[in-house]
Specification:
The structure is a homotrimer of 313-residue chains. Chain A contains five helices and twelve strands. The longest helix of chain A is centred in the C-terminal third of the chain and has 30 residues, at 283-312. Chain A has 313 residues and is an alpha+beta fold. In chain A, β4 and β5 (96-105) form a beta hairpin. Chain A starts with 5 loop residues before the first helix and ends with a helix. Chain A has helices spanning 6-9, 33-52, 144-163, 178-197, 283-312; strands spanning 13-19, 60-67, 70-71, 81-91, 96-105, 112-126, 200-206, 209-210, 220-230, 235-244, 253-266, 272-273. Chain A is globular and about 55 Å long. The first copy, chain A, is 30% helix and 32% strand. In chain A, strands 1-4-5-6-2-8 form a six-stranded antiparallel beta sheet. Chain A binds chain B through residues 1, 3-6, 8-10, 13-19, 42-43, 45-46, 49-50, 53-54, 59-60, 81, 83, 85-87, 89, 99, 101, 103, 105, 107-110, 112, 114, 117, 127, and chain B through 1, 3-6, 8-10, 13-19, 42-43, 45-46, 49-50, 53-54, 59-60, 81, 83, 85-87, 89, 99, 101, 103, 105, 107-110, 112, 114, 117, 127.
């Protein structure tokens, strides 16, 4: 009996497939965005840790530094099979970019559709020397443009990461389990959205998430959310993760992660519904609403541009 | 950005990879055999359900009818990545054989090893007509021998399945979630083994498991185990699953599944230890011990034969 | 007891909210009492550990010593959001009392109702010196009566704890994860109740639970239950947790926890149904029934008294 496909498994690709269960989804049967984010991160962590240890040298663990903005193109449903595939798409000296694709397959009808495309950045942390970042073995590109484009994405994320206000000056150090943290963040955002519009809601997109400071074992994390902006058919929710080091040498509370989640409200045929507009009272709220509007318009403009460029090809 | 390898995903193969977590394992860090069995069954259920719906006709769900005897060649550890790959290896008119391979990968060192090879039989149950078994689309074989050999395995499992004492005459109908049930069975067997030898124990093999009767939603299941046989370095534990239909038209308790698990005791270097011999008191116990000895000697003889045939090739 | 206000979030208050999922509930959609107990205990453990480490000195973990009698005022349902809030209500030199409130929110309608109020006692155990109980920083009371009443509750629980038969003379030492243990206890009680009346059943209350002896990592626990008493519309089930230390210096089996759970049977409109009366055969069973009747009448009397005192205010 031959080993089916085992060799193909081990050449820079990773697959993960599983049936979506009732507790992966909300009561309308739509799989939580957080469940998908967790699956994406697990695949990314495996493939980048494997790659970073593929040469002789310090053993290391790939730690999540950043998730690029992710769109949820179509909600997945209970009973469908979610396929996650991950591939390393760029390496700098100290970081790895992983491209992850998520597909939903209805195994009864055979219908398949892409539900997500995500890009994640990992940094290899030495297991022997705490805090030391190890070197990443370079990958081979099929075409020179791939390296060029990767470099651009690398420079861009580096810039954005340094602009965010909660950055850590020393080094990027991720949370113990970033997948679980993102799942919690999505859950909080979902509760805020459901309270606001009292209908079936699903994650439409997640802003880039930067992991600034490590959440250590034994920490207590508090995840909180507030709605910042509403368009006609979407809601933006800002989510914060704060960590308390209860039992350590130094007790402190710090902001570990923050991100913007966009939710839409769906009717029974999975079509977007209008959402109630946010009532603004304080100056702070008005300011946050304007900032949210800015992000909304910017994303809309980018989408139109990329749609145009696709049409012109 | 191209979709990495998505097409390769959809040609009769299925991959599933995940990192083994502390709660997949016992306190010595060895992943429970039950965790592996559950992963194997999930992959088998996905690939066979997909195949059985690949032609026009009644939509159906592939229900587990039988797991062939499975050896655990090497225990998996926390932090390793488990890779499950599944492939359809034979189809009869009403059943599908799935071959599943499990590999452990240490992503820090790159070392890989096969930990399990399993064969599972599924039967497609119609979703529209409860109890109806639908037809299985035939697969293409690369070589004619493959079909011949598959047919032999098919006849053999059919025979064995009809010989077992708890069979249901009407039709094969599996448990709601057979993977979870097998995980519970392994857990009970592990407790019986640990109580007996009070050391670190791991699953060495599982006898063929036949799923005779459906365990319905809302049933209470009782999983019980008893040690039946000890050799110098192994223990055989018989495990029963009984189901109670509490809230239904007819209240009854019935034997849903039973199987033999073989456990070994390991020292700190993962070498097998001698196990205390079973003390036999009743005639029943002596009879069961002799039957267990028969299974043990038969398995040993088969292994020697297959080792010889490998040497001669 | 008032519901603690949102502003004081970070000064001795803790909030936790999450959506109830299908696997939190039984097939009728009612969330298991055990799921609620686990959420209550997690909030209690966090807030008391945080408080006990708020002053310089030995770092410690707050260990659950006792849960006061808890009523389940109304069952929670799948899709509702459960809100747990916890507040420290009394401190003695070596123990902390935490008041926990649980509310159910239907986020679609906005309706909210209190489902539980619980009081838990924690004892801070030093991390550096195993077995040493550290000192608890005193809290500030808004009114002097609060301290007086807290002291009465403290004396009362101390007395009751010392009266129970399985107490450990040396020191209070909780189970590794008391929340998980309580969830298992509720599950066993629920099976006993469902077998007896074969209908949809829900937890109505839990007797005070005392944690006498630690359940160590690697222990095998056996949770068993027996019905002790039935009134017209309720069933009392006694649940035992026994621990086996399999792999240690001393092998023994000991009673770790025991408690009485009261269950009611509900019809489709969530109204209580009459329950079949317990058939008593042995003298032991008759004795236990009479003791159960005593507890039942005592609780009933207490409830009537507190209802009267509320009317008179």
């Amino acid at each position: 009996m031959r080993l089916p496909g085992v060799r193909r498994l081990l050449e820079g690709l990773l697959f993960h497939s599983r049936i979506m269960r009732p507790d992966d989804a909300n009561i309308a049967g739509n799989v939580h965005g957080g469940t998908i984010l967790k699956m994406i991160e697990e695949a990314g962590a495996i493939i980048s840790t494997r790659h970073c240890n593929s040469q002789a040298g310090d053993k290391c663990v790939a730690a999540l530094a950043r998730v690029e903005r992710t769109d949820f193109l179509s909600p997945m449903c209970i009973g469908e099979v979610g396929h996650v595939s991950a591939e390393i798409s760029y390496t700098s000296r100290h970081s790895v970019e992983v491209q992850v694709n998520v597909m939903a397959e209805n195994i009864l009808t055979g219908a398949k559709r892409v539900t997500n495309r995500a890009a994640l950045w990992y940094v290899p942390l030495s297991l022997a020397n705490v805090g030391r970042i190890t070197e990443v073995p370079p990958i081979q590109y099929e075409k020179p443009e791939q390296e060029e484009e990767g470099k651009k994405r690398y420079e861009n994320q580096k810039l954005e990461r340094f602009e965010t206000k909660y950055r850590n000056d020393e080094y990027i150090a991720p949370v113990v389990n970033p997948g679980v943290t993102m799942k919690l963040m999505d859950e909080v955002a979902g509760i805020v959205a459901a309270r606001h519009c009292k209908t079936n809601i699903v994650t439409a997109s997640v802003d880039a998430i930067n992991f600034h400071r490590k959440i250590q074992k034994g920490c207590i994390i508090t995840v909180s959310g507030r709605m910042t902006f509403t368009s006609n058919k979407s809601m933006e929710i800002e989510v914060f993760v704060d960590a308390d080091t209860l039992v350590g040498d130094t007790q402190e509370r710090y902001r570990a992660v923050s991100a913007f989640f966009t939710y839409v409200s769906l009717n029974k045929d999975a079509k977007p519904l209008p959402v109630p507009q946010l009532v603004l009272e304080t100056e702070e709220e008005k300011k946050r609403f304007e900032e949210g509007k800015g992000r909304y318009l910017q994303t809309k403009a980018k989408r139109q541009m990329s749609a145009q460029s696709l049409t012109q090809q």
